[in-house]
Design a protein that fits this description.
Distance between the termini: 40 Å
Strand order of the largest sheet: 2-1-3-4-5-6-9-10
Helix content: 25-40%
Oligomer: single chain
Shape: globular
Enzyme class: hydrolase
Protein name: Type II asparaginase
GO molecular function: asparaginase activity
Number of helices: 10
EC number: 3.5.1.1
Radius of gyration: 21 Å
Family: Belongs to the asparaginase 1 family.
Bound molecules: glutamine
């Protein structure tokens, strides 16, 4: 563990804070909301690409270390949290989304960047895409190596994020993630690889690339997001409890019963294969449903998607399928759906549309 923040190649550049650099004419205004993660991490030496402390470097220092930002946009930073993203809670999501929503309403803000740990970055990005009503670009970014490491990836990822957030051509494309030169849509992207800088992947492919400050778009998202969303963070004050139960050979019903016992409103089953459910736990899920708990059938298999009434009779059991959403993203969509309805047909409609 590293107690203090050593001088870093990024931070040691010691340029004036990007926010205080003179504005270039016609520059767009981007706010960087910092939440922690490796992009704000620091290791003991340049060799420490994987052994380091996340969430150490404050946003002002991060921006000051990147004078290139002043060529891209007029940038100012805000420290919202300073945490590793595996420790994100529902409350963190609500606080962050409400701050983003407030900022995008300001006429002097053209785009917002969120710096974030990579472990749950895709969850936060998806939550923002479901709940913030705006056409302005929202970009979530992290890094796989701390700024102190050789070949650190955070500096370019952040410059790319600000560049996309400042772009007119990114308007209306929803929340995106800029890692490894790619522009990914929040809904589809996941952290699929650890250690490597090519960590963020989508089975449907990136929307485009950002190279030397210019965006190259190849496709656009078709699922509902931001302006088309029926969920709005401005009217959400808490999220219903939705929990994930992971499946495997010899799985017991213990976790399902425990979550029902602690008052879960929905259980997302991370099933094997096509979202299959072991015979031995089907009764536990049926009992949960009979007590009013929603059952959402997803898959632990990363690619493909779960079909309704394949593997299990969803119509008969009154269950919902998670489409192609990973269990952790299905948790978020189910929680938002439950703020509106308790009808599994409506919840299924929501899972098809978002
Ligand atoms: N690469 C990272 O950002 C991982 C660091 C940490 N586990 C986090 O998610 O915040």
């Amino acid at each position: 563990m590293v107690d203090s923040v050593p001088a870093t190649p990024v931070a040691a550049a010691a340029a004036p804070a990007a926010a205080s650099q003179p504005a270039q004419q016609g520059q767009r205004n981007v706010v960087v909301l910092a939440t922690g993660g490796t992009i704000a991490g620091a290791g003991a030496s340049a060799m420490n690409s994987a052994t380091y402390s996340a969430a150490k470097v404050p946003v002002d220092k991060l921006l000051a270390g990147l004078p290139e930002l002043s060529k891209v946009a007029q940038v100012r930073g805000e420290q919202v949290f300073q945490i590793a993203s595996e420790s994100f809670t529902n409350d963190n999501l609500l606080v962050l989304a409400k701050r983003v929503s407030a900022l995008v309403k300001q006429p002097d803000v053209d785009g917002v960047v969120i710096t974030h740990g990579t472990d749950t970055l895709a969850e936060t990005a998806y939550f923002l895409s479901l709940t913030v009503h705006t056409n302005k670009p929202i970009v979530v970014v992290g890094s796989m190596r701390p700024g102190t490491a050789l070949s650190a990836d955070g500096a370019l990822n952040l410059v790319n994020a600000v560049s996309v957030a400042a772009s007119k051509d990114a308007e209306g494309k929803g929340v995106v993630v800029t890692m490894n030169d790619e522009i990914q849509t929040a809904r589809d992207v996941n952290k699929d690889v650890n250690i490597k800088t090519s960590a963020f992947q989508s089975q449907w492919g990136p929307l485009g690339m950002v190279v030397e400050g210019k965006n190259y778009w190849f496709r656009a998202p078709v699922k509902r997001h931001t302006m088309q969303s029926e969920f709005n963070i401005d009217s959400i004050t808490s999220l219903p409890a939705v929990e994930v139960v992971y499946s495997y050979g010899n799985v017991p019903r213990t976790a399902i019963d425990a979550f029902v016992g602690t008052g879960a409103k929905a259980i997302v089953h991370a099933g094997t294969g096509n979202g299959s459910v072991a015979d031995r736990i089907v009764p536990a899920l049926q009992e949960a449903r009979s007590k009013g708990v929603q059952v959402i059938r997803s898959a632990r298999v990363p690619y493909g998607f779960v079909l309704r009434n394949a593997e299990q009779p969803d119509d008969k059991y009154d269950w919902v399928v998670a489409h192609d959403l990973r269990p952790e993203k299905a948790r978020l969509l189910a929680a938002l759906a439950l703020t509106k309805t308790n009808d599994p047909k409506e919840i299924q409609r929501i899972f098809w549309e978002y």
